[in-house]
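Deviation from plan, reported transparently: pyridoxal-5'-phosphate complex.
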Amino acid sequence: MTAHNTDWIVPRAQGYDTNRSLREEIIGGLENVMFNPYVAGNAEFKPLESDFASKLGMKYAVAVQSATAGLILALRACDVGPGDEVITVGNSDISTTAAISIIGATIVLVDILESDYTIDGSQVASAVTDRTKAILPVDLYGHPSDCIALRKVADEHGLKIIEDAALAIGARYANHHVGFYSDLTIISLAAAKPLSSSGNAGMVVTDNSALAEKVSLFRGYGKEFDPSRTPPLSDEHVVEGFNLPMDPLQAVVVHAKLPYLMDWTDKRKRIAGLYRSALLDKEVKLPTFSEDADPSFSSYVILSSRRDELHNEMRKRRIETGTHYAPAMHKQPVYRNNVIAGDSLPVTEQVARELIALPVSPEMDDNQIDYVLTAIEDLF
Ligand SMILES: Cc1ncc(COP(=O)(O)O)c(C=O)c1O
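Because the crystal trials were delayed, the predicted structure below was used instead.
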């Protein structure tokens, strides 16, 4: 078993192992950024943006500081603001809902499917009002949402789809990478994510050139960048923007890893398959997927009424299980009075109570996989 500088025998993510194996390439890239003159206009990550977009079969990728930043910029680029409603789910990281309310819009929650815990498309149409501006599905755990069904609702009502694929790079739906059916899609490249930087980073992908330009504009102070312009012309702001580009040092790390994305996704799927086989005859609920869904398994999630006990026991064995995300968003103190959550969200609440996420990472070696499988045999 590989020695790690954490207390975990099986940590949730091991991207640092890959960093070690790509040491020369990463250090070379870092030196290039650090010891050469600064390139204006974020030119350092232009090559990453174009390689990233083509990897996912999309036309444009905009490199941003984090997925949280990407969500805010995407909502802003879609002109979502005060008075508008955005329909999303309550089983997500707070970044999803926070992005909506930070730009002044109202969060509207609908429930999730019992099968794969993604947004229940059948509830979305009835949540649409004349204030609705966007649908924000979340591909949690690497489970792709059914954005074909959402696209129909969105087109009928003139809404945008902003897909939170923070955890779902490598996942596909109907033979396309996540994002294909959405207007803007946000991917996290933070240190524990399936394609990881060593800190925070994110990407917004789209096929829509006008939206890509708008995200880019809001990312960079609202200035239309043109390298041929010199001050004072280069200081013209056409909108009030943010300063949220990707750190070029993180871009180097992500770029070095990008070629391996789909190999790693296959490794994730293999590990998820092994867990699934080991759990089939146990008293737990396993996720199931539609024929169109090809999940990337940022973790392998199961439901159990003994969740807390099992989670604690796994952690005692130094296996870094998670409970993403409890409590559900509409039960969080910050949202008690300021989300629209219908009468109840029973599946969302069950997931918050019962979900355990088992670690899945492409760097896991056979001993680590066996260690988790043995723990499953013993404890479940
Ligand atoms: C579903 C979801 N959305 C957004 C985010 C935010 O990502 P970031 O840390 O890159 O801001 C996360 C982070 O875990 C997430 O799980």
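Residues 1-5 have pLDDT under 50 and may be disordered. We consider this an acceptable substitute for the interim report.
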